[in-house]
From TrEMBL, chain A:
Name the record gives this protein: Biopolymer transporter ExbD
Transmembrane regions: 12-32
Organism encoding this protein: Marinomonas hwangdonensis
Pfam families in alphabetical order: ExbD
GO cellular component: plasma membrane
From TrEMBL, chain B:
Compartments where found: Cell membrane
Gene Ontology biological-process annotations: protein transport
GO cellular component, one term: plasma membrane
Membrane-spanning ranges: 21-38
Name of this chain's protein: Biopolymer transporter ExbD
Alphabetical UniProt keywords: Cell membrane, Membrane, Protein transport, Transmembrane, Transmembrane helix, Transport
Length: 140, 145
């Protein structure tokens, strides 16, 4: 009677430990180097001669002044809340081609400035200039 | 012998209990690879202001200026600590060395909570250096509050 000498099928298992080592290292690398902040940029073109366009500026441009971080902006000596959608819509509709220049007083944060610029853009403003908010007080 | 075989089989698969761990680790790895963006870390942690603006930078900035929060006096230009008055000279030097002067732009990264007075001198330095292309870093707002 022939002997069945074929060896029983053995699962040739590969050790998982080196694999886990490598995967852990990869995981650590990606965890440490990944950034989830969706970075964007806002152009703030600086003019070389801030005084020259002044005569043109006064033609139809709207100057909005931020005085505090209270979600309010001053337009022609009138405090307007950022949430006042109707006012912004009328203002922008009335001055369709105007440049909306944002100025800021002391203590105003960058976030407030961005909030106002967003509000203007959301309501259809074509050109919003925030560069003036960064001008040194002497060059205003 | 039956008992011996059984024992041997179990011993060969001693890594079996690692499989769920590897599954989870692989999932995390895939998540970080797909969802994250690999980029150089800033010298200081900066939380840029939220904005609906969705403009992405087409090219990498030639110079990155990172402004620290109000209570700290830190100012980093291209990952090196700088004094405010030295920025102008550095920018001029970088601009002279740049190959494509038309596309030369400066990125300013600042915290959303920073007050604008802190940023004004930095912008002034850029202006004094004769550069006009400046961009502020923002982060995309995830919907209305």
């Amino acid at each position: 009677m022939p002997l069945n000498l074929s060896q029983p099928k053995r699962k040739n298992a590969i050790s998982l430990t080196p694999l886990i080592d490598v995967v852990f290292i990869l995981l650590l690398f990606f965890m440490l180097t990944s950034s989830f902040v969706p970075w964007r940029i806002v152009d703030t073109p600086l003019s070389m001669t801030p005084d020259t366009p002044k005569s043109e500026e006064e033609k139809d441009n709207i100057i909005l002044t931020l005085k505090q971080n209270d979600a309010q902006v001053w337009v022609e000596d009138q405090a307007i809340r950022f949430a006042d959608q109707a006012y912004f819509q009328t203002l922008i509709a009335d001055h369709n081609e105007a440049i909306f220049i944002i100025k800021a007083e002391e203590g105003v944060t960058l976030q407030s400035l961005m909030q106002l610029a967003d509000r203007l853009k959301l309501n259809g403003a074509k050109t919003v200039s925030i560069a003036n908010a960064f001008a040194m007080p002497e060059t205003k | 012998m039956k008992i011996g075989e059984k024992y041997a089989a179990r011993a060969a698969n001693k890594d079996d209990n690692m499989v769920p761990l590897i599954n989870v680790v692989f999932l995390m790895l895939v998540f970080f690879m797909v969802a994250g963006q690999i980029q150089k870390a800033d010298p200081i942690a900066v939380m840029p202001p939220y904005s609906i603006n969705d403009t992405r930078a087409v090219t990498d900035p030639n110079v990155v200026i990172v402004v620290g929060s109000d209570d700290s006096d830190s100012l980093y230009v291209d990952d090196e600590r700088f004094v405010l008055d030295e920025i102008q000279a550095y920018l001029e030097q970088q601009f002279t060395a740049a190959e494509n002067k038309e596309a030369f732009w400066v990125q300013i990264k600042a915290d959303g909570a920073i007050s604008l007075e802190k940023l004004r001198p930095v912008f002034n330095q850029v202006r004094l250096a004769g550069l006009t292309k400046v961009s502020l870093a923002t982060q995309l707002e995830r919907g209305e509050e």
